[in-house]
Amino acid sequence: MLRILIPGGSGQVGTILARRFHAQGHEVTVLSRYPQNMQWRTLPWDGESAGVWAHLLDSTDIVINLAGRSVHCRYTESNKAQILRSRLDSTRILGQAIASASNPPRLWLNASTATIYRHSIDQPQDDLTGEIGDPGSWGFSIEVATQWEQAFNAAHTPNTRKIALRSAMTMSPDPGGVFSVLSRLVKLGLGGTNGPGKQYVSWVHHRDFTRAIDFLIEHEELSGPINISSPNPLPNAEFMAALRTAWQQSIGLPATKWMLEIGAFLMRTETELILKSRRVVPTRLLNAGFEFLHADWPTAARQLVNDSR
Questions:
Q1: d(CA 8, CA 31)
Q2: How far apart are alpha carbons 5 and 30 in whole angstroms?
Q3: pLDDT computed for residue 291 by the predictor
Q4: Whole-number Å distance between alpha carbons of 154 and 268
Q5: pLDDT, tens only, 20-44
Q6: Other beta carbons within 10 Å of 24
Q7: How far apart are CA 15 and CA 9, in angstroms?
Q8: Is 129 helix (H, G, I), strand (E, B) or coil?
Q9: Nearest-angstrom CA–CA distance, 267 and 259
Q10: pTM for this structure?
Q11: What span, in angstroms and rounded, lies between the C-alpha atoms of 45 and 68?
Q12: Which residue in 49, 266, 267, 272 is a FRET match for 292, CA 20 to 30 A apart?
């Protein structure tokens, strides 16, 4: 049995992980601003200071930090400040708490993002030679990702192995996730090509995401940044076509850039989440021997549709 602490674990990805670890018989504790009654223990945390949970680190095996304000919002100056500060503060506080623990966790997995790489249509971006994005293009998200990893790397925790999780969009049938949002558009006949359609979509099936976390826990030789994404990203036009086929929806109205701008404004989000090309591949996972169960999007989409019905 492992003792696993998941700060910021009340969102979609955190719930997926907590649910799996709990089913495996591990002792799971989630830290959240808004604790809920779950099958596992949940404790309050403001994400800005050490709390009553800090003493748990002396008996914790794994920390998986997912804390940070959602990026699904308009990038106003206030929202941008909250997005950045929530990630840096929580990472810094966790680093201090782990450094102070008499028996620190053996592994600290800290969320990062695959959007740290440049807008790439011409070639895949991996975790060995991938090019970090130019702050002048899609600058804010790249700045957040870069500073987030810098704060993580700056934490002095010599007795704790550290991995930055550069994750792609996690696809699961859980309500409120990206798959359910895209599926709703498809079922309304609005799931056509977004913008030029040539921009790549990187994704990972939720079962492969949790399996990858298990793999990283077991393989003690791995540390540093790790891409968690399907090895087969594909252009937006193909991605949406496969999703329409999975839902047996023949109609999919395309959305031009100006239409996406209007839609993003009404939905209080940003078009970058749709228009930036994320052509990310998980070279380090593959080189270490990890095998994906759901590497192909058309097949994965059909399975996710069946699970969501």
A1: 6
A2: 6
A3: 98
A4: 34
A5: 999 999 999 999 998 888 999 999 9
A6: 13
A7: 6
A8: coil
A9: 12
A10: 0.94
A11: 12
A12: 272
Three-state DSSP state, 207:
helix
In the sheet with 224-228, reading across from the earlier edge strand, the strands are: 41-44, 27-32, 3-7, 62-65, 107-111, 161-167, 224-228
CA distances from 129 to 102, 132, 279, 281, 289 (A): 37, 9, 13, 11, 19
Contact 272, 138 (CB under 8 A): yes
Tokens of 48: 């800005």
The residue type found at 296 is D
- Amino acid 61 reads D
User: The tokens of 246 are what?
Assistant: 């999975």
CATH superfamily of 3-308: NAD(P)-binding Rossmann-like Domain (3.40.50.720)
Six token digits for residue 42: 């949940």
Nearest to 28 by CA among 36, 19, 37: 19
For residue 54, the SS3 value is: helix
What sections of the chain are H helices per DSSP?
12-23, 77-100, 139-154, 178-187, 206-218, 236-246, 257-266, 272-275, 283-287, 297-308
- pLDDT score for 213: 98
Which 3-state string (H, E, C) describes 183-201? HHHHHCCCCCCECCCCCEE
